[in-house]
Amino acid sequence: MLLGAVPILLLLLLYIVMAASRHAVNPADKILPLPGAMVESMSALLFVPDQLTGQLVFWADTAASLQRLGIGLGISTLTALVVGLALGVLPPVRATFGPLVTGIAVIPPIALLPILFIALGLGETAKIALIVIGIAPVMVRDIAAHVAALPREQIIKALTLGANSWQVMIRVALPQAMPRLLHAMRLALGPAWVFLISAEAIASDVGLGYRIFLVRRYLSMDVILPYVAWIALLAIVMDVALTFLSRRMFPWAHGESH
Amino acid sequence: MSTLLSFRDVWVEYGDRIIIEKLNLDIEEGAFVSIVGPSGAGKSSFLRLILGQEGPSRGVITLDGTALAPECGPDRGVVFQRYSVFPHLTVLRNTVFGLECAKAPVLGRLFGRTRHAAEAEATEMLNAVGLGHSLDLYPAQMSGGMQQRLAIAQALVKRPRVLLLDEPFGALDPGIRADMHALIRRLWREYSLTIVMVTHDIREAFTLGTRVLALDKRRHDPHAPHRYGATVVYDLPMRARPEELSETSDDITIDVIRNN
């Protein structure tokens, strides 16, 4: 834990040294702002209500982005569970819909963004749809592959214990898909952020990605850098929370005694 | 003793490949039948037939006089070499599983009094296989031998008419294997089980079984090896009655039981 902090601290130190050296040459430098300048411009966004909307900009951005991300991730996770289970357990379903899911999964989601904006308008729906289209097919395929790879012996055993197909689904396949689902969510978080920021950068009026791309016009690195750090922090917290949740809820999947 | 399982002129064919040909066999109730034979001689096909994973291409298999449907059912329990316990359930939940499936078709779970009754029944079975102190462990926390004990308890709690063992002790080391032999012999006696065991271990087949069946191809055509299927080539009765087995002899050999 401590050892891992060393390279991060070294990078921070390197940044401060470089920023200080640039400011020594040009006190008005905007490219590498000093921590003081960042604190100053961020405190305005954090604590001073916006003159136009009356909102605290930073928190409004965070809430908007997290809401989009949460809804997108939620819909994708639910889809992955239901469709993934059906694809994995029921061979006829896999034969029918497998190629469709694969087809959607290989389309670069950003290429669909114009279609989404045209079809769904510039509002929240299109942004959430982009996240869902971007991550759901991969999650669906992951869950389907995981469920389909359950040992044949286990299924036969369940059948000889009197289970019907439904019971095999909810008592054997579903519980074993759950830790995998949390894992798939962790892996999907990265792409989900990418699609969120992209959608916000192109058409939005609030959100973390929107703010970064807005202030870019004024070379406001003193806002962009703290925003990026905040996004990184949010992503890390989500990742750690999902890992913790998985270990807590499914100890059998982590080979630990409980 | 009456005939429990009976094969009448059973064939298994995939296209023009013949796996099992003209199999005629009766298995008595209370028998412990060991199946041996070289790889590819239809041992697993034979087991799949009894399990109902597949049906015969020709012929009839009857269990208790009624024809066997080609689907798995609770009257035939099974223990595989591996993967036959559920990794996401504790020992107790693994064993209760079969009882829950029968009584809770929609939720697959029992609650309240019925659950307590099922848990008591499962605990009793786990005590019988020596897992009474490990009720809350997950399979990943147990040794291979303990997992096989669990798999046996899981199957027996459903009181199957016939217990199928597919190389059940093949992955265990020799000491554990001897313990498991003693266990399965005791369970077979106490619960009056009918057991069909496929094994690669000839010694195991002869020490445990009351009857040893060797499956192999009776004829061999070097130009079309797939055109002849396997059948029972040796049918050796080992012991007339299970009671003859002495309680104390954990390390029986052919000499000890005087049947050579």
Automatic annotation (TrEMBL), chain B:
According to the entry, every stretch annotated as the ABC transporter domain falls at 5-242
- Name a Pfam family for this protein: ABC_tran
InterPro entries of this UniProt entry? Answer: AAA+_ATPase, ABC_SmlMolc_Importer, ABC_transporter-like_ATP-bd, ABC_transporter-like_CS, P-loop_NTPase
**Entry GO MF terms:** ATP binding; ATP hydrolysis activity
**Alphabetic keyword roster:** ATP-binding, Nucleotide-binding, Transport
Any idea what this protein is called?
ATP-binding cassette domain-containing protein
